[in-house]
Design the sequence.
């Protein structure tokens, strides 16, 4: 009996050790599904490089001892193309997908994975959302298979309006956003939160522009000028922000401040240049000169590509995945998802938490201002000599917003 017990114990010990090392050296394929064509191609290309560059960095050393490989597929910023791209990725054996541009493609992925994972037990696929910020994605549309790494629209607006309530010079605000879910949410939350925190502020305009279709924003700038606005709030991103800022500079709109979500993204810094110094602000989870482990990565990325690595949520993705895989002792999405729920882990901006209720990452947010680069903020944007300098930091609890998510978990 003693021999049997000892043998059984030894077998279990060896099995546990084998399980613990099962993922060591394993290659984890990640499918990146975002635009590589159309007006948002430059933005997509930069983010694709960010995922691939950080895959190389984290493959050198991570808690789980795995290797990461990123497969890029152009979704043309279309929900239909995204569904096709997702099928193609799964046909290649991919179990993890990442996407960030547009809530339409994000919803397409969530819907497809809900169906696929229900029908294919043991072959589940997990979705990491690094930039699609429509709050509905972690509220009415929340899914067990979806984890958001960025702060959502309402969280960013909570931080931005908390900052604006103390800016006495802000009296007349013009809203201009892209005509899709995110843009409508920016408009909605700006009006609601300003009314609550600064009821004296007047909303003097509320425009919606077609997503990735406008090449000349001068008619919109003329309306802003005519309105007498002293401030503009915009959630525009990609070419829609770069061209908006360019039109403002061309029109000499010098007495208006722009409060943005994505002022750092491709094209916008070049459009701003010296003319926008001190006049463009951004709310976000970080900045190019962030201290800590990401600082060298940002410098190395720029040295390699002559581009800025501004989508730092990519770092969140690899930090969270590798830590969860180490704790789960597995790369199986079902086991990894169970660990990521409620998990606290260290990332480039300190300790963050993947809230279990809705799979929305809780993290601190910065208000930054476009200014001359130098000193401790020496890394500039798009070689302009200017960068976003932090002027205010909010702890995670300040921007944390409630959720209505009723999570359906796999049995």
Sequence:
């Amino acid at each position: 009996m003693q021999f049997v017990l000892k043998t059984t114990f030894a077998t279990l010990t060896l099995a546990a050790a084998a399980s613990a090392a099962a993922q060591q050296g394993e290659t984890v394929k990640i499918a990146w599904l975002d635009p590589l064509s159309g007006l948002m191609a430059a933005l997509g290309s930069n983010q694709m490089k960010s995922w691939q560059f950080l895959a190389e960095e984290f493959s050198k050393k991570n808690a789980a001892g795995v290797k990461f490989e990123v497969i890029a597929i152009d979704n043309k910023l279309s929900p239909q193309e995204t569904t096709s791209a997702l099928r193609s990725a799964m046909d290649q054996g991919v179990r993890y997908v990442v996407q960030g541009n547009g809530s339409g493609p994000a919803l397409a992925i969530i819907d497809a994975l809900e169906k696929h994972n229900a029908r294919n037990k043991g072959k589940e696929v997990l979705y990491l959302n690094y930039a699609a910020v429509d709050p509905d994605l972690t509220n009415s549309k929340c899914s067990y298979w979806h984890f958001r790494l960025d702060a959502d629209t309402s969280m960013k607006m909570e931080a931005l309006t908390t900052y604006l309530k103390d800016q006495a010079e802000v009296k007349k605000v013009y809203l201009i956003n892209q005509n899709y879910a995110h843009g409508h949410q920016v408009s909605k939350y700006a009006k609601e939160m300003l009314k609550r925190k600064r009821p004296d502020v007047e909303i003097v305009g509320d425009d919606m522009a077609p997503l990735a279709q406008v090449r000349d924003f001068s008619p919109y700038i003329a309306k802003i000028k005519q309105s007498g606005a002293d401030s503009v709030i915009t959630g525009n991103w990609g070419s829609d922000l770069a061209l908006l800022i360019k039109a403002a500079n061309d029109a000499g709109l010098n007495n208006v401040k722009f409060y943005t979500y994505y002022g750092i993204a491709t094209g916008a810094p070049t459009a701003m240049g010296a003319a926008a110094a001190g006049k463009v602000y951004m709310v976000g989870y970080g900045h190019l000169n962030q201290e800590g482990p990401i600082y060298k990565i940002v410098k190395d990325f720029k040295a390699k590509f002559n581009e800025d690595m501004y989508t730092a949520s990519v770092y969140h993705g690899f930090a969270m995945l590798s830590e969860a895989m180490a704790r789960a002792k597995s790369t199986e999405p079902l086991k990894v998802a169970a660990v990521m729920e409620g998990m606290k882990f260290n990332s480039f901006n300190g300790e963050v938490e993947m809230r279990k209720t809705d799979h929305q990452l809780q993290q601190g947010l910065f208000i930054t201002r476009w200014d001359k680069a130098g000193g401790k903020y020496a890394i500039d944007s798009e070689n302009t000599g200017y960068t976003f300098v932090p002027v205010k930091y909010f702890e995670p609890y300040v921007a944390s917003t409630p959720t209505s998510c009723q999570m359906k978990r796999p049995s």
Notes: Residues 79 and 234 are 24 Å apart (CA to CA). The domain at 10-151+292-362 is CATH 3.40.50.2300 (Rossmann fold). The first strand starts at residue 27 and ends at 34. Confidence is low (pLDDT under 50) at residues 1-21.
